[in-house]
Specification:
The protein is of the alpha+beta class. The chain has a single domain, classed as 3-Layer(aba) Sandwich (SMI1/KNR4-like), CATH 3.40.1580.10. Helices cover 25% and strands 25% of the residues. It has five helices and nine strands, in the order H-E-H-H-E-E-E-H-E-E-E-E-H-E. The radius of gyration is 14 Å and the shape is globular.
Length: 153
């Protein structure tokens, strides 16, 4: 079982309906990006969804502990989780066309960010609310390896 399969079976409580290839192509056209191949495959096989707030294991010094609330997707059940919302794309100055795109959210108001261009294409970052960016993973599959049961309080 892949890490992504395991994470979805263990932590996802609401999966969004899978999009068609044409829907993914149309979204890419609308927001003027081309998703990295692994992320595109993730959308077609899993799409986004709401999660039971598993911890996201920090991988770099200074990165705060936070938990995953949702991963954005096509055909999302709530607007906040719709992938490629104009409001999300305009959060970052100079991001037109988008070089980074929010693809998820955390319990503390942070964002999960996907790099769509340059040498870091496909890399996943955590954007802490009102603070900095922290590297999480080289790709979406590595991101799912970071999800853990919440630590007891």
């Amino acid at each position: 079982m892949s890490t992504t399969n395991y994470a979805y079976s263990r932590f996802c409580h609401e999966r969004f309906p899978l999009p068609s290839e044409q829907q993914v192509v149309e979204l890419e056209r609308q927001i003027c990006i081309e998703f990295p191949e692994d992320y595109r495959n993730f959308l077609l096989e899993f799409n986004g969804g709401y999660f039971t707030e598993p911890d996201i294991t920090p991988v770099v010094e200074g990165c705060p502990l936070d938990a995953l609330t949702f991963l954005s997707g096509l055909n999302a059940s709530h607007d906040e989780a719709a992938l490629g919302r104009p409001a999300d794309l305009s959060l970052f100055e100079g991001n037109d066309p988008p070089k980074i795109i929010p693809v998820g959210a955390t319990t503390m108001g942070g964002l999960i960010i996907l790099v769509t261009e340059d040498e870091d294409r496909g890399t996943i970052y955590f954007k802490q609310a009102y603070a900095g960016f922290f590297f999480l993973a080289n790709n979406i599959e590595e991101f799912f390896e970071l999800l853990r049961e919440p630590e007891p309080s």
